[in-house]
Structure formats: C-alpha cells, structure tokens
Task: structure prediction
Amino acid sequence: MANDIKSSEITPESVYLNRRNFIRAGLVAGTTLATSLAYRFFNPPPPKEINTAQIENLAKPPEFKTEEKLNSFEEITNYNNFYEFSTSKTSVARASEDFITRPWTIEVGGLAGKPKVFDIEELLRFEQEERIYRFRCVEGWSMVIPWVGFPLKKILDAVEPSGKAKYVAFETFYGGAKSSNPNVKLPEGRNGMQSAFAAGIDLPYVEGLRLDEALHPLTILATGLYGKQMPNQNGAPIRLVVPWKYGFKSIKSIVKITLTETEPPITWKIAAPDEYGFYSNVNPDVSHPRWSQATEQRIGEYTRRKTLPFNGYADEVASLYNGMDLKKYF
Ligand code: MTE
Result:
C-alpha cells in the first residue's frame, strides 16, 4: 500500500530539503496516489473466473423476454448488492468466492397441507426456463438479465397452501442448519458471511410477498443466469426474482419459504420503515425520501432513462393492485 512507502524512498534527499520543491513533490506524490486510487476504483482486480456448471435442462425458449440489450455477464457478476458479504458492490464477487452451496435445501412450510424440504439437486431437475427481465434497484440503477429458473408457483402448489395462507416469507442462509427438521441440510457455520454489525442490517436477510404476487407467472426462483448455474455473488444456489419490484425484494441464497397469514417482516423495512415499504413496486411517481425514482441509470449507458411503472410489467401485474392506493402501500 502507498502508506508503506517512506517519503525518503520516493523523494531524493536534496529535493527533500528544499521547501518549495518539497511542497511540489508532495503534490506530485498526492496526485500519483490519487491517480492510482482512481485507477483501482475504475479497474478493480478481476475476480477469479466464474465457471459454474451449465444448466442441464433448459427446456423452453424464453417465453417472457424483453428485446432490450442484455447486460454482460461481467457487469451482472461484478456490480452486486449482497450485504452478507460486502456493502461495496464491486467487492461482493471476491468476498463471496468461497461461499459453499452444497449440500443445500429449501424448507417450505408454514400454512401448508404438505410441507416439504426440497434439495437443490431436485430443484435443478425441474424444467428450467430462460427469463430475460429488466432489473431495477431502488438505488436508481438497472440492468437487463437473462435469468434461468422456474415459477415459484411450482413449489408453492406442491406444498398445498391452506386457505388461511395470505403471504409468503423468505429467508436467506445465515449460519448452518438451525431447523429441527432432519431433512434440512446446509453448509456449516457462517460460510464466509460477515457479522450483522458489519453488514449494517439484521441478519438473516428476510423478504416477503403477498400470496397472489408469489403465484404470479412472472415470479421465479432463479437457479442461474446466462445458461449457467447461479454465481455466488448473485445469490447461489437459488434466489427470488420479482421483476416489477425493486431489486431488494429479490432475496438471495434462500433456505426457507413459509406460508403465513399476516404480512411478514422484511429486512429493509425493519432497517428504515419510512424509506422502504412491503410492496416496493417500481413506481416513477413515488420518490424515495432521499431521491427521485423517475429515472434510472442502466449499467453500461451514459444517460439516464425513464423508469417505467411496474418496471415495464404493468400490463401483466397492475391488476394485482386494483383499488389500492400505491402511494400509501409503497
Ligand atoms: N439478498 C440478500 N440475502 N442480501 C442482500 O443484501 N440485496 C438485494 C437483493 N437481494 C440482497 C439480497 C438488493 S438491494 C438488490 S438490488 C439485489 O439483491 C441485487 O441483486 P444482484 O446483485 O444479483 O444484481
């Protein structure tokens, strides 16, 4: 690091003693440091090559797709939000390199007639579809991502939600199996994740949907992207994707799904209830208290573009919210 270099090593003694030159040398050294920091900021060290396995049974051509230009694999896997590993978007890839995702199960239960623990290998044997979706983060950036996965409805139907179930709660991995269910099998310990204190949010990360949102055909459990199994930094081995909602609803590395009668707590609403709501549908007309949501920065573009209501999926999902005041239920 720059701090380890003694000034005498970079500045000859005679110059060192001349006050004017001393100041000038200091400026040059400062500029050199600033330039190298700026260089490092714009050119972070490349992460180890990500070489996840190919998704085997990619059966159907993409049924739901946008024709917009895709973001590259490099962009999608090097600009991430995954607070369990790092709060710096460009550091998540490296910080999550050693995250172990086998064995892995998802425990699906709660208000369900047939609760079940699904093994990841079983879920990967489901027919997988490609879904090319816009992805809009609440922070104001967006990407176009070719996900691979299957409708969440598939596993919810399998466990037979009871008539009382109105919501679905999700939980991310955070420390080995705590379940009393002997079929739950997960990696040991915290598995490379940082403390909740370092992450600055309560952990495990939790999220939720209304049952009708969860059963909507656009809502998927994603097992990969670009035809390959999910990279760690994007939520391996399986994460939620709800394309008409802000990105934080798309919870990563899921271990538990619970059908509930009441609205489940969600991480960002717990952290800042005035800033983040349970619904968090992409809405250009409802500003975040600290910034407008009217426009967004598509990663890789130079100018901002207009944000679309429901992230462009209004035709498919607006009817889910008929009669609701979306400024109140933000
Ligand atoms: N899930 C967990 N467990 N932890 C997180 O920090 N960040 C959310 C969401 N899911 C997050 C998470 C946010 S804020 C966004 S924008 C997306 O993941 C980012 O997904 P990506 O890194 O695949 O683009």
In short: The chain has one domain: 6-321. The mean pLDDT is 89. The domain at 6-321 is CATH 3.90.420.10 (Sulfite Oxidase; Chain A, domain 2).
